[in-house]
Amino acid sequence: MADDGLLVNFEIPQGTLATKSVLRGGPWSERRRIRQQENYHTKKRLRDTNTHIDSELLEYVGTGTNHESKRRKTSPASEAKVHAKPFGGPKPYHITASPREPRTGAVDKPIISSLFSSNPESKTTFDDKPIDPNAEPVEPSNAPLSKELLNFTTLGLTPAIAAHLTSKLAISAPTSIQRAAIPTLLNSDEDAFIQAETGSGKTLAYLLPIVQRIMALSRPKSDAEDGIARNSGLFAIILAPTRELSKQISVVLESLLRRAHWIVAGAVLGGESKKSEKARIRKGFNILVATPGRLADHLEHTEALDTSSVRWLVLDEGDRLVELGFEDDIKKIISKLDFRLHKSQGKVLESLPKKRVTILCSATMRTDVERLGTISLKDAAHIAADPTHTDPSSESNPNGTQVEKKFSVPSQLKQSYVIVPAKLRLVTLIASLKRAFIRCKTTTKVIVFVSCADSVDFHFQALTRNESNDSTIQADATKEAEKEKDKWRSKNDFKAKARASQQPNVELGTSANSPSLSTDSQQVSVFRLHGSLQQSLRTSTLQAFSKSSNPSLLLCTDIASRGLDLPDVDRIIEYDPAFSREEHLHRVGRTARAGNEGAATIFLQPGCEEGYVDVLKAERGDLGAVNLRGMTAEAVLRAGFPTVTQNAGRPRKNVEELQPWEVLATDFQLAVERWALAEPGVLEAARRAFQSHIRAYATHVKDERQWFDMKQLHLGHLAKAFALRDRPGSVNVPGLRVSAGKVKADRKQAGGGAKSAKKSDNDGQGGEDADIAEARRKMSRMGRSTGGASEFNLA
Ligand SMILES: Nc1ncnc2c1ncn2[C@@H]1O[C@H](COP(=O)(O)OP(=O)(O)OP(=O)(O)O)[C@@H](O)[C@H]1O
After folding, report:
1. Residue 183 sits in a domain of what CATH number?
2. Which of 169, 182, 200 to mutate to test the pocket of ligand 1 (most atoms within 8 A of CB)?
3. Which ipTM did the prediction report?
C-alpha cells in the first residue's frame, strides 16, 4: 500500500501490541531467551498485518534493540498509543509514540509523533456558505478615480506633468488621496499629515506637488536652456525608515524628473561609502532622499551639505520611523534645519513655500505617529483619502487636528484565516503554497511573512531542498539516527558548542528553485529576505523577486512589510501572525495595491489565537461577509495534497494507487524530518529557527497577548513544524549570528509594537518585560539554560 516512510492509516489487529508478561524465576539466561523470542514474534505479527510501518517508529514503539527495551521501565505497549480519533476524514488508526520524560544519564531519543493525532480542536464555526458567483464585485477602495470625472490637470498640475504621467508612468487619473493632497500641497504652506490605506498612491501624492513647485521656481526658457541647476540649493528632504523604501522613493522621483532633467535628486542611505556620498553632496542636489541615521551623520560631518533653502521635510512611514528608534535622529535633523533656515533668514524663493513645510505620511495612525507629529508638525492639515469617512473614535491630536483612528485594509482584498494545529503548520503551509502556485495560470508572486530571520532561513532551506535525495536519506535514516545520538551525547561538550557557534549557518544563497512547489510544467523560485543579510544582497534579492518571470515566493520578516511596492504580488501569507495589528495591515497591504486584486491568508492556532478572528471580522465590517473566509487546516491540506482523482491535471491512476491527503502530508513531513536529521547544518538551522520563533512570539504587543499567549504554546507540537524530533527541552543552539547592538535595534524594530504598548502601560513595568520573562522561563524549561541565544534573531 504505502512505502516505508508512512506511518498512518493502518489498522492494528487486536492484541498486536499486547503487554509483555513479566517473567519471574528460573535461570536468567532462560528468561532472556524467552524475552528475545517474544520480541521476535511481536515484530513478525506487526509485519504480518500487511502494512508498512515506518522503521524508525517501529523501533521506537517497543520492538527496538535489547538495550532499549532493557532501559525502559514501561512496557512497549504502554508507550504506543492507538488513537481511534484521527484528524478529519474516515477513521484510520494512528500509532504515536508518547513523549517520555528525560531520564538522567540516558541518551534522549528522537520523538516521532503522528501529525494527525492529539491535535487540539478548533472552536471556530466556519461558514460553509459558498461564495455567490453572481455577487457584485467589491469596489476597490485604493483604485484611481474615473478619468472621465477627474484628471491631474483639474487638481492643478501642469499639462506637461499630467502628460508625462500618462505617457511614461501609465497613470492618467488620481487616486482619492492624491485628489485630496495635491491641491492642498500645491497651494498652501501648511504642515500636513497624509493618511491613507496601503497602496493608495501616497508617494505621488506628496512628490507631484513638490516637483511641480520646484519646476516652477525657474523654468528654462527653451529646451536647450536649463533653469535652476543642481547647485541652486537643496529644496526638499524625504526621510524613509528603510534603505529599500528610500531606494523605491528615489526611483519614483527619478521617473518624474525625466520631465525636468535640470532638477537633480540624490539619495544617502547608509550601507554605501560615506566618502562617495560626500563627493555627490558636494556637487549638489535639489531633492534628497535619505534614511534618518545617515542624514543626521552628514548634517554633523559634511560641511558641504547646505540645508538653508530646504522648504519641505517629508517623513514617510512616520510610525515606523519612531518604532525603529529614529526619534532622536529626527529631532536632531529638525533642530539643524531650523537653525540653518534661521541663519539664512528664509531666503524668498518664488513658488516655494515661505517657511519649511513638514509632511508626515502613514497608512496607520497610532501613538507613535502622534508623538512624531508633536515633534515635527505645527497646525497640520489632516489629509485623508475620504474626508467623509470619520470614525467615532476620532480625537484631537496635540496639534489640534482631527485624526482618524480607524484604518482598514483595501476593500477588494480577499482575506482568509486558517485554523492550523501547531503540528500541522509546516505541511499546511506547503499545501497552501502548492495550491496557490498550481491554481494560477499566469506568473504569480506570493509573500510569506515569518517572525524572525532564523525562521526565514530554515524555511528557505526546507522549501528548496533537493527531494531526489529523499530515498537515500530514508535508507540511511537509521545510520543518521545513530550519528544524531552521538551528537546528542556531545551536546554538553563545550568545544562542540564553541564550534557550533563559530559556524552557525550553512552557506545559503538568497534564491533557488523549489522542487517541493514546482511541477513538470512550472518552476517556482523561492527568495529570502531579512535584516541580517548584507544590504547589497537585500537590494539584489528584492530586484530579482520583482523581475522574476517564474512564479515566485518571497520568504521574509517584517523588513518587507512597509511601503514596498513589489509588482504582481497576488497573495500574502502570514505564516506567523504579525506582532501588532498595524503591522498586519501593512503586511497584507503588499497586495491589492492601486485597485488591483489580491488575497491574504493568516495562520492561527486553535485556542486563544482563534480570538483574533474577531479582530479580522471587525476590520472588514460589512465586507467580511464577502471578503473574509475561514478554513480548516484539513480543507487546505485536501486541496494542496490532492488524491490522484482530485488532481485533474494528471492521468487517472488505478484505484489501488490512490493515496489519501493525510498520507501525502505525512510523507512530506517525514521526508523533511529525515532530511533535517541527515544534515547537521540543517538540523541546527531548524533548532535555531524554533528557538528564535518562540522568543519572537513573546514580542506581540501587550494588547494582543490575550490572543498570542506564550503560556498556551505547545512547544512539543510546535517543534514538529520545524521538522524537529527533539524534545523541546533539549533544543539549545548556542551562539548568536548578530551583534548585541544590532539585536537591540532588531528587537526595537520587530517588537516596536510591544515597545509602544509598554509606553502606554501606566505602571511602566508592563507586559513586555513580563512576557519576555515568560519566554525566558519557557526557554529555560526547554533547555535548562538559554545557552547564549539570549536574544531574538528577528530582523
Ligand atoms: N493615480 C494612480 N493611478 C494608478 N496607479 C497609481 C496611481 N498612483 C500611484 N499608483 C501606483 O500605486 C502603487 C502604490 O503606490 P504607493 O507606493 O505610493 O502607495 P502607498 O500609499 O505609499 O502605499 P504604502 O502605504 O503601502 O506605502 C504604485 O505602484 C504606484 O505606481
Report:
1. 3.40.50.300
2. 200
3. 0.99
